[in-house]
């Protein structure tokens, strides 16, 4: 299977590892290659994704998914995992051409794109102690770290006390595409005020 597999087939896509309308479920120790996304979506809540190895993104796909935990995952997304690498059935919803954005190790549903099929991602989706890397620029480019502060609790869609859209310059972002590397901490959609000294928020010990 090559890099044209399921990484992007355009409208609808293929190869989802999908947690849709799932609650209090555990996704642990999985290894996947050349899939399009690992997703929580459509009211998925209280789930834990831990100790997985993916070369596709951890994707909050929309529909008010909330209170999910991603920790101790290893995600490395190559430059080829991007809309512009599509080779068949290409195009976005509405038959528009694929955009020139990159898909980073985390994706969050927001703006008009989310409204089209599912609505916004919901509150308090937590990322902790993951190893996330993205290859930028070209297929020979370096991999850069992403949300790489060990012990820092990143709560997406949270002000600390309630739901908060991702914002830039005081306004909600229109799309996650091209906004993936902005800093949303400091009451702009990602609460990072909490830290923890343990390896895991879910497990009592990690061997």
Which structural class matches the secondary elements?
mainly beta
Please state how the strands of the largest beta sheet are arranged side by side.
2-4-7-10-13-16
Strand content range: 25-35%
Span between N and C termini? 33 Å
The helicity comes to under 10%
Backbone CA Rg:
16 Å
Low-confidence runs (pLDDT<50, min 5 residues)? none
Number of helices: 1
- Biggest pleated sheet: 6 strands, mixed
Query: How confident overall, as mean pLDDT?
Result: 87
Q: Helix-strand pattern, N to C? A: EEEEEEEEEHEEEEEEE
Write down how many β-strands occur, each being a DSSP E stretch of 2 or more residues: 16
Overall geometry comes to globular
Describe it for me?
The chain has one helix and 16 strands. The chain is mostly beta strands. The mean pLDDT is 87.
């Amino acid at each position: 299977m090559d890099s044209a597999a399921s990484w992007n087939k355009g409208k609808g896509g293929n190869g989802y590892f999908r947690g849709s309308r799932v609650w209090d479920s555990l996704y642990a120790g999985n290894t996947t290659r050349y899939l399009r996304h690992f997703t929580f979506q459509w009211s998925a809540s209280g789930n834990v994704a831990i100790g997985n190895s993916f070369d596709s993104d951890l994707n909050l796909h929309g529909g008010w998914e909330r209170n999910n935990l991603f920790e101790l995952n290893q995600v490395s997304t190559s430059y080829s995992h991007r809309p512009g690498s599509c080779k068949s059935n290409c195009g976005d919803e509405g038959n528009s051409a694929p955009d020139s954005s990159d898909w980073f190790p985390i994706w969050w549903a927001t703006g008009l794109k989310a409204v089209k099929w599912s609505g916004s991602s919901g509150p308090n989706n937590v990322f902790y102690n993951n190893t996330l890397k993205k290859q930028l620029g070209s297929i020979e480019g370096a991999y850069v770290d992403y949300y790489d502060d060990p012990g820092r609790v990143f709560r997406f869609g949270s002000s600390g006390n309630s739901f908060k859209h991702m914002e830039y310059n005081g306004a909600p972002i229109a799309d996650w595409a091209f906004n993936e590397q902005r800093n949303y901490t400091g009451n702009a959609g990602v609460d990072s005020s909490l830290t923890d000294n343990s390896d895991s928020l879910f497990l009592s010990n990690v061997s």
